[in-house]
Amino acid sequence: MSNPFITTQDTNESGFVVSDNSFAQSGDIDFSARQNEQVNFATQTTNSQTNPSGAGDEEKPNTSNEEEEIKEYKWYHFYKSEFYARWFNVDTTDVLKRMLWGLIPFFGNFFKQTEENPDLYGPLWIPLTVVFLAFFSGSLSSIIENAYDYKKLSIITGTILLYIIFIPIILWGVCRFAFKIKNSLVSYICLFGYSYTIYLIVIPLCAIPFWYVQIPLIIIGFFVMSITILKNMFHLLHENTKIIALIITFVVLVIINLAVAAILIYSVWP
Predict the structure, then answer these.
(1) How does this protein lie in the membrane (predicted)?
(2) What one-character-per-residue DSSP string does 53-65 give?
(3) What is the pLDDT of residues 175-234, one digit of tens each?
(4) C-alpha distances in angstroms, 146 versus 66, 141, 143, 268?
(5) 3-class DSSP state of 17
(6) Residue ranges per domain, the chain?
(7) Which end of the chain, C or N, has fewer beta carbons within 10 A?
């Protein structure tokens, strides 16, 4: 009886039958190939679900970079440049918005609008620009004679820098330790610096050499600057202080602003 699965038979010299069971062999091969394909497909599917497109490998460096960016520096790191970088993390849009808030006193609470990211960029270049403009306006009549009053420049610079640096420090110390208000020192410097925005408009106009133009312009600048500071300080203090402390604070700030206005009048006076 012949084997139906054997299609060809060859007899070698020893008398053994050499069979070519092509059906059985091809079936075995096909089955093995299908098993391999299924195993490979399942493995690829599992890998793609576990790590789609290698996303896990790419996220690790980003996470570490984010941790480095949000790292906070303590006060004793003041000698590092990174300590100050966080206060210059603003763009042109942020600076223009804050200049508008400093120019128009009725745009809400400046402290709340800047509490997440107070900056030192605007409070540095705005007052320094005012110093330059005041010196230029006051010396305009002397440009032809090439005679500049550098004593006047020293007085203007010293007054404005004292106002920008020391007044916020004193005010921060009083609010922090007397009234238990925990706003940062930079937020006070930010307010006082941006309140100078009005003088970027007023001082160039004071180049007009007539006292009845210069003095009213400086007075307008004084009132706008004072209202900006006093309104925002009122929002900060009225819930935490007694009325007498609030009045004293306002009187002191008005006197200081008057002194600044007087210095600016002196600077533009020919």
Answers:
(1) Multi-pass membrane protein
(2) GGHHHHHHHHHHH
(3) 899 888 889 999 999 999 999 999 999 999 988 888 889 899 999 999 999 999 999 998
(4) 55, 10, 5, 17
(5) strand
(6) 9-66, 84-268
(7) N
Which amino acid would we find at residue 255? I
- For residues 109 and 232, is the Cβ–Cβ distance under 8 A? yes
Reduce the DSSP state of residue 232 to 3 states and report it.
helix
Q: What is the dihedral of CA 251, 202, 133, 260, to 10 degrees?
A: -10
What single DSSP character describes residue 52? G
Give the torsion sign (CA, 186, 249, 125, 162): negative
Rounded to whole angstroms, the Cα distance separating 50 from 47 reads: 5
Q: How far apart are CA 118 and CA 210, in angstroms?
A: 39
- The answer to whether residues 102 and 196 touch, using CB atoms and an 8 Å cutoff, is yes
Residue 241 has what DSSP assignment? Answer: S
Read off the DSSP letter of residue 77.
Answer: G
- Report pTM: 0.69
Ranges of H-type helices in 90-149: 92-103, 110-114, 121-139
**Residue that is written with structure tokens 């223009």 in the block:** 96
